[in-house]
Design a protein that fits this description.
By secondary structure, this protein is mainly β. The protein is built from 1 helix and 8 strands; from the N terminus they run βββββαβββ. The chain has an 8-stranded antiparallel β-sheet with strand order 4-3-2-1-8-7-6-5. The protein is globular.
Length: 119
Amino acid sequence: KSTNTAPKKIPNLIGEWKQSNSDSEDSYQAATIKGDTIEIFWVSDNGDTKSLYWAGTFTAPTSSDEPYTWDSVNDRSKTDMALLASTADTKTMKYEKGIISYEASALGTTTTIKLEKQK
């Protein structure tokens, strides 16, 4: 008898991600994960303007268990010069059901950013 409980695959988070819960069509956050790094940008003007928000470490999941979280460590060699970058030492990121989420603060407001992987 066959069962439908195929083993879940370990998610591959490498690639391009875009904010799915932005209030604005032309202003959002976008991320690139490659190797053991994640870079997140504030994107505006329909993609013409990109400002670094976060550059840090990425730890790939080793199992299919969700939610998966990792603490990204700020790469200050990149963020110290960026006006809109986070000043936090670490940022906790969570992956669950195809969404990477984390908290971002700007102008005194904290928002949970949700990113979806781009095809």
